[in-house]
Amino acid sequence: MTDSGAKAEVWPLVHAERAALAEDLAGLTEERWATPSLCAGLTVREVLAHLTSGASLTPLRWMAGVIRCRWDFDKQVAMRLAEQLGEDGAETLERFRRVVTSTTKPPLPKIAMLGEAIVHAEDIRRPLGIRRDYPIAVLTALAGYYQGSDLVVQAKGRIGGLRLEATDGPFSVGSGPLVSGTTLALIMAMTGRAAYLAELGGDGVSILRRHVPSPE
Questions:
Q1: Which pairs with CB-CB distance under 8 Å and at least 24 residues apart come from 73-76?
Q2: b (16+ CB within 10 A) / e for 47-65
Q3: How far are the Cα atoms of 22, 24, 53, 105, 200 from residue 126, in angstroms, in the given order?
Q4: Order of strands, edge to edge, in the sheet holding 163-166?
Q5: What is the distance between the alpha carbons of residues 154 and 180, in angstroms, rounded to a whole number?
Q6: Burial profile 167-194: b = 16 or more Cβ within 10 angstroms, e = fewer
Q7: Over its length of 216 residues, how does the chain's per-residue pLDDT go in tens digits?
Q8: Dihedral over Cα of 212, 200, 190, 93: its sign
Q9: Helix, strand, or coil here: 184?
């Protein structure tokens, strides 16, 4: 399921995750749209707009935005998010629904887009108390991608010197003090989500905790 491997298989997985998220968010009240997400400083509505932005940006538009923002990538993200926010939560969701089956992307591997769809979906779902049972094969492939990459988010560097083992699947990597837990919790911790650290066990958790930013 790498970008250089079964390329055709990745986009259907991305589309399935987007569709599941859109269904989960149907009927959300405006008050709940304002719930703080796991992304510091962003509401769940703003994270959804960010996902819409990522599914709408061609490499050319992405580069044009980077130049316009003078290579300030955070500014570019904020600018593109604002473009997709809409007037209210219902419009934000409708804009997202329009890109559920999009294959447009910035200059990133397809597997990174799957990561965006799952990690940001959890940034939204967890604060809202919504649970999704992701296919373990998909999570295992995604964990394998993140453990070897610092692209988009730091993950590889965050887990250096640790041994990660999933308790619900075959994912296992590294050597050193152990960090164990569900594949999803390992992914979310690897990508810097402190809320999932309590779900992990092993001598390496205290080390990993030092590499994961505390929620503000």
A1: none
A2: bbbbbbbbbbbeeeebeeb
A3: 15, 12, 21, 25, 16
A4: 172-174, 163-166, 178-181
A5: 19
A6: eebebebbeeebbbbbbbbbbbbbbbbb
A7: 443 344 448 999 999 999 999 999 998 999 999 999 999 899 999 999 999 988 988 767 666 656 666 656 666 677 778 888 889 999 999 999 999 999 999 888 999 999 999 999 999 999 999 999 999 999 999 999 999 998 778 899 999 999 999 999 999 999 999 999 999 999 999 999 999 999 999 999 999 999 998 765
A8: negative
A9: helix
CB 192 within 8 A of CB 177: no
Amino acid letter for position 43 = T
How many Å apart are CA 111 and CA 141, to the nearest integer? 9
Maximal C-alpha separation, the chain: 49
Phi first, then psi: what are they for 204, rounded to 5°? -85, -10
Torsion of CA 110, 189, 173, 108, to 10 degrees: 20
Handedness of CA 176, 179, 185, 189 (dihedral sign): negative
Pairing mode, strands 172-174 and 163-166: antiparallel
Give the integer Cα–Cα distance in Å for 19 and 187. 21
Establish how many alpha carbons lie within 13 A of residue 203's alpha carbon, considering only the half-sphere containing its beta carbon.
7
DSSP 3-state of 113: helix
